[in-house]
What we know:
The protein contains 7 helices and 14 strands. It is of the alpha+beta class. The chain has one domain (2-254): 4-Layer Sandwich (Deoxyribonuclease I, Chain A). The protein has a 6-stranded mixed sheet.
Amino acid sequence: MRIATWNINGLRARKEFVEVWLKERQPDLVGFQELKIQDVDFPHEFFEELGYEAFVHGQKSWNGVAILSKAGGKLIQKGLKGQDDFGARLITVQVNDLEFTTCYCPNGKDIDHPDYIGKLDWYDSLISESKKSEQKNRILCGDFNIVARPIDSWKGEKATGEIFHTQEERLRMKELKSTGLEDIYESKYKDEQMFTWWDYRGGSFHRKHGLRIDTILATKDIAKRTKDFVIDRDFRKKKGDLTPSDHAPVYIDLE
């Protein structure tokens, strides 16, 4: 079973690009972030023709998350309790015995911006909700907008204290994982430096100036069943005339 997460940076701009990826990689379950469209504008028929049922929590022009499933599923939750001001950023679907959540965590903008405090509060709500879960098979994936460790930033230790790299943000990520979730990447590639996001500007991708902010967190039993964790760098590159997102897709293969 192949399970993926991807910040697509606008579905309207990326629909054909996403189609190429889906046909080539054939994931069974996908969490998308940053749709930038409303629910009513989501192209359900397009994805049905590709073999997927879609569950959507969209928002006009900003944010928005969705889940694609080949096996169908049951919608469990849209949004994070008490965090409506930050928009459509979380959706959960039950797929057979798996509780699957994808999230687009707030950026925070800058450590002096009010959104930074809001970001920490949003994470506190996510952590509180995660603590309540009794699901044995659970995945939380998405764009977390936190660089969990210095090795996950091209700047390394020099970036400590900057947005995405603060002690407060890293503490939230640590607390989130303490609710019974493992970062599959860290368990597989603890000492390797790989990135999932590169700025469009300044040739960042080719200069290897990136961040690892997209990942898949899972409960212990899911982590044990994971054969591989892939950062799909090839789909951060153009495909013909199709422009990629600034994030690479990430996926795991389960036994």
